[in-house]
Amino acid sequence: RALIFPLLIREGKPTPFFTFVLALLFCVFNGYLQGRSLSNYATYPPGWLKDPCFIIGFIGWLLGMGINIHSDHILRNLRKPGETGYRIPRGGMFEYVSGANFFGEILEWFGFALACCTIESLAFALCTLFILGSRARQHHQ
C-alpha cells in the first residue's frame, strides 16, 4: 500500500521526500521483521491452518484488506479532475466510520496478528492502531 496508493493518486499535495523515505524504511524494516519472525522463529502445530485462531485472523485480514482497498478507491475518486477543496467521503465503510481506510488497515493487521500468533505481528498491529488511530481522530475532527 505504501508504494501503490501514492502512484494511483491523480492530483494532490506532493509528499515530502523525507516523509516518503521514513515510510519506506519503516515498511522495509517491518517486512523484514515479520518475515524473519515467521520463517525462523514461529512454529505451528500440524493442522494450524484449520485452527479457529488462524481462520478468524485470516478472515479479519482479508476483510480489512478489502475495506482498505475500497476506501482508498473512494478517496482517490472524491474530486473530479481540476477540482479542489475538501470533500466528505461517502459509501462503503465511510457510512459507519469517518476514517474507513484507517479502520480497514487496523483490522487487516489485527487479523494478521491473530492468524500468526507472534509477538512481532501483535507489536505491528498495536503500532498500527496507535499511529493510524491518532490520524483517524485528526481526520474526524
UniProtKB/TrEMBL annotation:
InterPro entries, A to Z: 3-oxo-5_a-steroid_4-DH_C (IPR001104), SRD5A/TECR (IPR039357)
Alphabetized UniProt keyword annotations: Differentiation, Endoplasmic reticulum, Lipid metabolism, Membrane, Microsome, NADP, Oxidoreductase, Transmembrane, Transmembrane helix
Cellular component per GO, a single term: endoplasmic reticulum membrane
GO biological process, one term: steroid biosynthetic process
Membrane disposition: Multi-pass membrane protein
Location(s), subcellular: Endoplasmic reticulum membrane; Microsome membrane
Signal sequence coordinates: none
Stretches of the chain forming a coiled coil according to its record: none
Membrane-spanning residues: 15-33, 53-71, 109-132
Domain 3-oxo-5-alpha-steroid 4-dehydrogenase C-terminal: start-end pairs: 14-141
GO molecular function: 3-oxo-5-alpha-steroid 4-dehydrogenase activity
Family: Belongs to the steroid 5-alpha reductase family.
Protein name as annotated: S5A1 dehydrogenase
Taxonomic path: Eukaryota, Metazoa, Chordata, Craniata, Vertebrata
